[in-house]
Design a protein that fits this description.
The protein has about 180 residues and is α+β, with helices and mostly antiparallel strands. Helices cover about 45% and strands about 25% of the residues. Helix 1 runs antiparallel to helix 2.
């Protein structure tokens, strides 16, 4: 049996509906289209003598190695929410010109700028080299999350940018 055969599609759909494609035992209606696309991609690249790992490596070599990470900062106690509010106010008032050793090319304040999106307590900084740092406080718990995104010519270069950005996030979150 080849991937791409009608039987294989029916088999995936049946297993997904009866057992859950994510292994949870529950119905996951979003998994089926993903799995079918994944099988199509695997079949396409197999005809080219590649596996999916080879395909993603080829994309990375063409477009760059994109890396993403998340830093989560918890502010405990009664004063935690106030500390978070103060940090966000400080970041709004003292717009950084540089973060992680990279020039801030632009920033977006989703609370105050006209983004066309709903208002939100989110600050986004776009940095040189296609890097991004996004700060978002939780509305339900005393936590601020800092989302990091970097691209490099190699995986090591992108990882190095992320590590530098993590140190910067730690510095930004000092009360």
């Amino acid at each position: 049996m080849q991937i791409g055969d009608t039987y294989e599609y029916k088999n995936v759909v049946t297993k997904e509906i009866t057992a859950g494609a994510l292994g949870s035992g529950g119905l996951d209606i979003f998994a089926t289209p993903f799995l079918i696309c994944w099988m199509e991609a695997a079949a396409y690249y197999a005809q080219k003598g590649m596996n999916l790992g080879d395909a993603i490596d080829s994309l990375y070599e063409t477009f760059g190695y994109y890396r993403n990470d998340l830093c989560s900062f918890t502010f405990e106690g009664v004063s935690g929410m106030q500390t978070m509010k103060n940090l966000m106010e400080r970041l709004r008032a003292e717009k950084p010109a540089e973060l992680a050793g990279r020039k801030v090319l632009s920033s977006v304040d989703y609370e105050n700028d006209d983004t066309g999106l709903p208002k939100a307590q989110v600050l986004e900084y776009r940095l040189e080299g296609k890097a991004k740092l996004i700060v978002r406080p939780s509305g339900t718990e005393p936590k601020i999350k800092v989302y990091l995104s970097a691209v490099g010519k190699t995986r090591e270069e992108a990882d190095s940018v992320i590590e530098t950005m993590k140190r910067t996030a730690n510095e930004l979150m000092k009360a």
